Amino acid sequence: MRGGRTTRRAAARNAASQLQHATPGVAVRTAAARVIDAVLHQGCSLKAELARTLPVFADSRDRALLESICFHALRHRRRYAFALDQWMPRPLPAREHQLHALLLAGLAQLDALQLPAHAAVSATAEAARVLDRKTHVPLVNALLRRATREPLPASNDPAIAHSHPDWLLARIRRDWPDHVQEILDANNTIAPQWLRVNALLGSRDEYHQRLRDAGIDASAPEHPSRALCLSHSPPVAELPGWNLGAVSIQDAAAQLAVEALAVQAGERVLDACAAPGGKTTGLLESHGGGSAAAIELVAVDNDQIRLQRVADTLRRLQLDNAATLVCADAGDPGAWWDGKSFDAILLDAPCSATGIIRRQPDIKWHRRESDLAALTALQDRLLDALWTTLKPGGRLLYATCSIIREENAERIDAFLARTPDAQPMSLDDRYGHRSGAGRQRLPGEQQMDGFFYALLNKQAERQPEESSDP
Known about the structure:
Blueprint: H1 2-21, H2 24-42, H3 46-53, H4 60-75, H5 77-87, H6 97-112, H7 117-130, H8 137-149, H9 158-161, H10 166-175, H11 180-187, E1 194-197, H12 204-213, E2 218-219, E3 227-230, E4 247-249, H13 252-261, E5 268-272, H14 278-285, E6 296-301, H15 304-316, E7 323-327, E8 342-348, H16 363-366, H17 371-387, E9 390-400, H18 409-418, E10 422-425, E11 433-435, E12 438-441, E13 451-458
Parallel strand pairs: 5-6, 5-8, 6-7, 8-9
Antiparallel strand pairs: 1-3, 1-4, 2-3, 9-13, 10-13, 11-12, 12-13
Helix pairs in contact: 1-2, 2-3, 2-4, 2-6, 2-7, 4-6, 5-6, 6-7, 6-8, 7-8, 13-14
């Protein structure tokens, strides 16, 4: 094991050294190929790989280009791979997966990003040399030059044409037959950046004006009430008051989950599966102003590292010590619950994340249909366990960032069938389409992510009637 870690560290040092000696344009293409390869062939997270790689580049323009190449290559991975298969005289050997990733990066530059052909082709071909694929430089050059002269070969298979795995397209067709094209298109578009204004530090109108003063364009929808949608995504450090906690980055669909639960001052609230903390802090900011201590909030997550991110976010938003953070399995109340019931519970359950593909395109290639059985079992376990911690008359919001009915409406239907004291509560049209006892927002609608919401009320126990017999 030690030898394996040493080898990986040496490889990382060698890769960094190669990038330092390459021209900026070539270094960006080389890094993109490595990131795409790590995501597709090593099962790595795109977010994690970019977090590790982006700091290598001092110039913000290089970082932005690297990120764009990776996102577009992964969004359109299957369509690009089909085109390469049609054009190459023979398939690349399996061991040439990094070279294949570089070719995907090249097509992303020419097709999706529409970069100047000469710069994109020459820098990408030279990147093959940096990747120790000198003999393949002519192949890369020839394939990408062909892409500048003729359109990419198109497939009649919708899963290939829209770059989705077969199983996911089948699920979308089954679950949302009237919205298939909308969902496929939304999944391959760039998601806007949404902000949530910290109501404890100022109003949305005030912050909107601060953005205008900084030359940042944004729109304010009717709902969510503290949301602003940016026309472009500046670095967070450029957002007015970011370091002082004036604002957070959070998609509007996630903000709606907090609005649906509608916590009130004085309530005891549980945020289950809380990391990375967007909803935790949203709950603390949402009770109507005044001190954050107006609600008693317990945030539970089973990952200590991710829970630390919640603590860091609380600190930035000037909400230190406003919540009790607990590292535990939320589905095992005996290990963490003090026996004091909650007035309101937000269960943002682990799920397939198929509603946020436009933000994390690697989800398409990492998720498997076989994952659903374990996910739905976990969702059922969390619902059953957390229900026992809710006081009679209290409410629980079940939410996921999935668009798959099996994880959403079907889970709630099954829970209601086995839980006599659970009753659905109505949610209005702002939460999306009716779906069983809940509401489903589909990706891209009102520029938001895909999200499911179901609000449940725990019926109070009926007192036995007094007998009228003498």
